[in-house]
């Protein structure tokens, strides 16, 4: 039986319209993480984005998508079905970006929408889906 995991993530833009991307384990991604039992999905998104990027001056917008993907937990061997709630967010470009090394995040960068295609070649299908629903790509 699959275990259901609820997570939250952010599609963050700055005042120049750039999109925040993180680089983790060889893949470009958006910040996201598992919801803790005692928090709302909105609180989860804010916490995870802060932890993974170092950003604190964040504004949470509307939910734009829920993606579902399955994987096998490498530690327990359990089958997991992960439901990630994605929200639009705004951040200040001047704020320092700090990759969360403990989560294997090696880079946090701002990407111009016109340059997005090169990052999408090295990302997950669910990230392309989120960007598409937000109107950033026709991929």
From TrEMBL:
InterPro entries: NUDIX_hydrolase-like_dom_sf (IPR015797), NUDIX_hydrolase_CS (IPR020084), NUDIX_hydrolase_dom (IPR000086). Keywords: Hydrolase. It comes from Hydrotalea sandarakina. Residues 3-133 form the Nudix hydrolase domain. It comes from the Bacteria. Pfam families: NUDIX (PF00293). The lineage of its organism: Bacteria, Pseudomonadati, Bacteroidota, Chitinophagia, Chitinophagales. This is ADP-ribose pyrophosphatase YjhB (NUDIX family). GO terms for molecular function: hydrolase activity.
């Amino acid at each position: 039986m699959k275990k259901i995991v609820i997570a939250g993530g952010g599609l963050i833009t700055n005042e120049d319209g750039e999109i925040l991307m993180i680089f983790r384990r060889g893949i470009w991604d958006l910040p996201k993480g598992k919801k803790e039992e005692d928090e709302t999905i909105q609180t989860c998104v804010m916490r995870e984005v802060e932890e993974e990027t170092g950003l604190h001056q964040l504004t949470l917008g509307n939910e734009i998508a829920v993606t579902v993907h399955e994987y096998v937990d490498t530690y327990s061997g359990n089958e997991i079905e992960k439901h990630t709630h994605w929200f639009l967010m705004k951040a200040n470009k001047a704020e320092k970006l700090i990759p969360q090394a403990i989560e294997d995040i090696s880079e946090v960068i701002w990407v111009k929408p016109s340059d997005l295609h090169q990052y999408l070649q090295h990302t997950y299908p669910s990230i392309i889906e989120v960007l598409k629903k937000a109107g950033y790509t026709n991929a």
